[in-house]
Amino acid sequence: MLENKKTNFFITFTIVLIVILLLAPIFFYVLKFGNTLSKSQDIWGEFGSYVSGIYSPLLSFFTLIVLYSQLKVQRITNEIHKNISKSNEDRAFVEEAKKDARKYLIDLKAEISKMQSDNNPFYKDLTSNFTYRTIEELKSPELHAIAVNLDRDNPNVLLNWQNFYTAFMRLKAKIEYPYEHNFSIIKNEALLVLQYKGCVALDNLLYCYIKGSINYHYEYSDFGIATCNQHVS
Q: What does the pLDDT look like over 12-65, one tens digit per residue?
């Protein structure tokens, strides 16, 4: 918007300048010698030489201005096309990441729902053991053994959560729109689908299972009671 205003001002200023420069020689000639048309061929010849001597350099100057204006407009046009292309690429990247993240959330929800309908105690064991835990507790061999057992009996849960995080973190590739906006959307969708304690428990389960060996940023544990974005020493 600001660039367009500058361009419009430059064009207007250029037009006004051209008009002034074109009229100024005639104005000063009339001011000096009057506005009576001469019948002398010599006077007209002198006037022609005067006009030629004044306007030839002006026309060359105007040609340079026009060329500069064309280059400036072309540069702005190229910049606009570049920004549109980048914006389209960003939108496509974000939409693909959102699609993948939602797929893994749906798969995870279906897996947990199936366990609950089959009276599988996984979700209860998950939330009771991993919802409210400190870093020190998650480092303990006892909890790690529980995490290993839960993953052994229900391998698709942790796999889907890791896959969800892979897609989810792609939305954090840039701190700008549309990345930040859609990152917040998916973060809140996970809370709606899996509930707050489910998201925190899955974060803690993942941290405990891999012993903090991968540098994940645990988004849900960060704002829960358990903060799990540190490495195991």
A: 877 787 788 778 777 877 777 777 777 777 777 777 787 788 778 877 877 887
* Residues 59, 46: Cα–Cα separation, whole Å: 20
Interatomic CA distance for residues 118 and 172, integer angstroms: 37
The structure tokens 């959330």 sit at 105
Q: Which of 67, 82, 97 is the last residue of a domain?
A: 82
First to last CA, the chain: 52
- Residue 215's H or E segment, with its range, is none
Decide which of 31, 62, 82 is a domain's last residue.
82
Cβ contacts of residue 145 below 8 Å, gap of 6+? none
Q: Which residue has the higher pLDDT, 5 or 120?
A: 120
Enter the tokens of residue 64: 């340079």
pLDDT tens across 166-224, in order? 999 999 888 888 999 999 999 999 999 999 999 999 999 999 999 887 776 788 885 34
Q: Per the domain annotation, does 232 fall within a domain?
A: no
Instruction: Verify that 175 and 96 share a domain, yes or no.
Output: yes
Q: pTM to 2 decimals?
A: 0.64
Does residue 230 lie within any of the structural domains? no
Distance in angstroms (rounded) separating the CA atoms of residues 193 and 215: 25
Please report, for residues 112, 158, 165, 203, 212, the alpha-carbon distance to residue 180 in angstroms, rounded to integers and kept in the order given.
29, 25, 15, 21, 25
What are the structure tokens assigned to 145, written together? 């053994």
Residue 123 sits in the same domain as residue 44: no
Cα torsion at 215, 218, 222, 228 (round to 10°)? -60
